Amino acid sequence: MVNVQVTVLSGAGISAESGVPTFRDVETGLWAKVDPYEISSSDGWQRHPEKVWAWYLWRHYMMKAVQPNDGHRAIAAWEDHAEVHVVTQNVDDLHERGGSSRVYHLHGSLFEFRCDRCDLPYDGPLPAMPEPVEVVEPPTCVCGGLIRPNVVWFGEGLPADAWDRSVDAVRNADVAIVVGTSAVVYPAAGLPELALSSGIPVIEINPEETALSASATLSLRAKAASTLPTLLQRLPALLG
Ligand code: OAD
């Protein structure tokens, strides 16, 4: 496998076995509990920043309390055998904490903050949140703007640098592994399509059928943490 490039495209499902809820699970998913357009859009932020801030602050602290699972760790361990790039829609840091060195966050990070007016990064104090609450006033910037999470909300563009690196990582891949995403949110969902149209094999790992399953080169109905640790050795056999 020397000189092979593996590009992983991950979504919320890879962190599910770390105890992080996904978005679209009908019972436990985040979008089953809150209105995505109220809590995750710039309109919602303008209307009630204190509600949006409280929700993201809760998720920030929740992510600090969970650990990478065998899936994150396996992808990092592949770096001993291949050049591995991780393109993730996740705003957690579990790939990095699992040991991956090339991670591109298409939807931003729960661990970065910036001013909603002047874009100045913020690394000042955050209010403690021992338990989830519905309303917390966001800190203010020196310019008078409000501090917001550095995540991508509905209707906002993706960070250009992460997007460019992700496209390159897909174009240069020998194989793309798509794990734990419902593959419905664009432009991220266009990356497996880019791989397929470039003749790059795409292997999907997901316990459920998704929008990608029918077109993937191989679609494994399986969970990330139990499948990824042995996947790299099995690739030659799986791809024939
Ligand atoms: P979704 O919640 O849409 O999909 C999670 C996927 O993970 C589903 O297809 C599950 O079947 C699968 N899954 C669950 N447990 C799994 C496991 N143990 N192993 C492997 N797969 C598992 O999450 P995303 O596709 O990541 O965007 O959602 C994409 C974007 O939609 C998010 O980044 C977020 C959301 O709106 C923004 O906030 C901008």
UniProtKB/TrEMBL annotation:
Binds 1 zinc ion per subunit. Pfam families: SIR2. It is found in: Cytoplasm. It catalyses: N(6)-succinyl-L-lysyl-[protein] + NAD(+) + H2O = 2''-O-succinyl-ADP-D-ribose + nicotinamide + L-lysyl-[protein]; N(6)-acetyl-L-lysyl-[protein] + NAD(+) + H2O = 2''-O-acetyl-ADP-D-ribose + nicotinamide + L-lysyl-[protein]. GO terms for cellular component: cytoplasm. PROSITE patterns: SIRTUIN. Its cofactor is Zn(2+). Residues 1-238 form the Deacetylase sirtuin-type domain. Gene3D superfamilies: SIR2/SIRT2 'Small Domain, TPP-binding domain. NAD-dependent lysine deacetylase and desuccinylase that specifically removes acetyl and succinyl groups on target proteins. Modulates the activities of several proteins which are inactive in their acylated form. This is NAD-dependent protein deacylase.
